[in-house]
Amino acid sequence: DAKTTQPPSMDCAEGRAANLPCNHSTISGNEYVYWYRQIHSQGPQYIIHGLKNNETNEMASLIITEDRKSSTLILPHATLRDTAVYYCTTLNSNSGYALNFGKGTSLLVTP
Amino acid sequence: SAVISQKPSRDICQRGTSLTIQCQVDSQVTMMFWYRQQPGQSLTLIATANQGSEATYESGFVIDKFPISRPNLTFSTLTVSNLSPEDSSIYLCSVEGEAGPNYGYTFGSGTRLTVV
Q1: Residue range A58-63: average pLDDT?
Q2: Which end of chain A has fewer CB within 10 Å, C or N?
Q3: CA distance B31 to chain A (A)
Q4: How confident is the model at residue B36 (pLDDT cuts 50, 70, 90)?
Q5: pLDDT of A90
Q6: Which pLDDT band, with edges at 50, 70 and 90, does B98 fall under?
Q7: CB under 8 Å to A13, separation ≥6 — which residues?
Q8: Dihedral sign of CA atoms A18, A75, A4, A108 in order
């Protein structure tokens, strides 16, 4: 099971793009990368996931490097409500495919 | 995606007592997961609960302290027993997406436990 590494904190100005990096250099070929966020100790919220192709949905874009050792979550126009802790995760195949949370990145969006 | 109702949302308990947390899902799910989130920390998996079998516990978590029930495909409980202040945390349940894990997991809103 891959271990993920993220910067502990980042700032972003409101309206600008927030680019959150994640390192998962030990990821295996069939392991997806998932992104979740947690606002104010609520339950984590699913954002996006991907395997090898870049993905986009209504919330964000996910860019995965060709070697799959890292990825970047992009919030194209950050708002104050995007202030949260963002987790890059993989599945733990030894635990019934539970999500394997790292320490996450605390994103602060400023006016 | 599934909707989870988790109760209670918060509680303050005396040390030595127990708290039982309930998670009700609006659809049938095979696996349910219980997590603990200590203050300022990330989520740590406590156990995986599959209906019809005993829960599988992660290293550092034992059944006597965290008994889990999974009587059917829509419901589970986690009990935190013999409470001590170190058990003060947020406890969350989670289920995989209706089409499997590759379609996102849903989390309950959490139970904030304070032990005094």
Answers
A1: 95
A2: C
A3: 8
A4: very high
A5: 86
A6: low
A7: A78, A109, A110, A111
A8: positive
Joined tokens for residue B69: 């029930």
DSSP annotation string for A1-53: ----B--SEEEEETTSPEEEEEE-TT--TT--EEEEEESTTS--EEEEEESSS
pLDDT value of position A19: 98
CA A89 to the chain's CA centroid: 7
Is A81 strand, coil or helix? helix
Quick check: A52 and A31 in contact, CB under 8 A?
no
Q: Half-sphere exposure of residue A94, counting CA atoms within 13 Å on the CB side?
A: 7
Which residues does chain A have within 8 Å of residue B53's beta carbon, measured at their own beta carbons?
Answer: none
- Give the pLDDT score at B100: 56
- Chain B hits for A41, CB-CB cut-off 8 Å, are 37, 90, 110, 112
- The DSSP element (H or E) to which B79 belongs, if any, is strand B75-80
Interface test with A, best of B96, B105, B114 (most A CBs within 10 A): B105
In this prediction, residues A88-100 reach a mean pLDDT of: 80
Owner of token pair 């970047």: A72
**What are the Cα distances from residue B105, in Å, to A12, A57, A69, A79, B3?**
27, 16, 23, 24, 10
